[in-house]
């Protein structure tokens, strides 16, 4: 059979075997949890599917990637860290991944899936240097890519880390995909939890608040507002060991607080209007969640921010608040129900000890 890029390759399950993983012990490598199986894992890819995916992406997949997919096609990993010779926005000496993309298009995190390589290139403006093959805990703000710039679309690509928050800075990780997989280790090998806790506590205690949050606090006429926001963030850091918002109750409280503050500046016409900055927006004049909590400001290395966010967690919060009647229609948009807003302020002040 012919591959989509014009090269001839024989059919059959052994056609692209490399033997790179023959002696690699995969015990404890994969995460077999429900979320991994539902969102990352696909059946073993056929030769036809591999050819279709390569045609869609415009690059020939490394034989080692195909071989791994025939052993297990995608999944979250327990050995999630890879050493680096250069520092990145993640750490001084390593990067961390969440999972490896399947060859396919049905799993959310597959090469051609809803949040896979093509999506990150087309919707998040990742550079067209190759194929995104793994995501990271930063919820889209970093990606692990196969870099074909030196080898061409049919050659053997190296593996790089691309950091969206650093203007898509590219950092070398491994000379090829097989080496990348073989050198993945448990995050216990890079236990910097104490340093992360100290740094994130400093961030939430001293970091500069977003200009939007400051304007909203003034508009809300809440004298203890800054103390309230910082106290909640500090409780989140102490519970998790780092500052990040997910689906836990305190994260939902922070979503509530940011939406309540946002509503003192403007009315959200939709979930998307609240969450996203406008296309091409480079200033902080127009409120949105991504500029209030997730963005680190260029001139302030200690800016109060999470550095990224997972939209799915936010959407689940929004849907739950709508269903409970805590976020209600108001004119041409949505606001917190007044009674719930009063209760929210009381709860936040209790967290901060400013009641």
Note down, in words, how this protein is organized.
The protein is of the alpha+beta class. The protein is built from 13 helices and ten strands. It has helices spanning 34-39, 47-57, 63-71, 117-124, 177-182, 193-206, 211-220, 225-240, 249-262, 271-275, 289-294, 311-324, 338-352, and strands spanning 75-76, 81-83, 94-96, 99-100, 130-135, 142-147, 158-163, 169-174, 327-330, 333-336. The strands form three sheets. Strands 1-4-5-6-7-8 form a six-stranded antiparallel β-sheet. A hairpin with a 6-residue loop joins β5 (130-135) and β6 (142-147). The chain is elongated, with a radius of gyration of 22 Å. The N and C termini lie far apart (72 Å).
Biggest β-sheet: count, sense, barrel? 6 strands, antiparallel
Task: Give the number of DSSP strands.
Answer: 10
Q: Would you tell me the overall average pLDDT? A: 89
Shape: elongated
Question: What is the H-and-E element order?
Answer: HHHEEEEHEEEEHHHHHHHHEEH
Structural class: alpha+beta
Count of helices?
A: 13
How many angstroms separate the termini?
Answer: 72 Å
Query: What is the beta-strand fraction?
Result: 5-15%
What percent of the residues sit in helical stretches (DSSP H or I)? Answer: 25-40%
Which ranges are low-confidence, i.e. pLDDT below 50, for 5 or more consecutive residues? 6-13
Strand order of the largest sheet: 1-4-5-6-7-8
Q: How large is the radius of gyration?
A: 22 Å
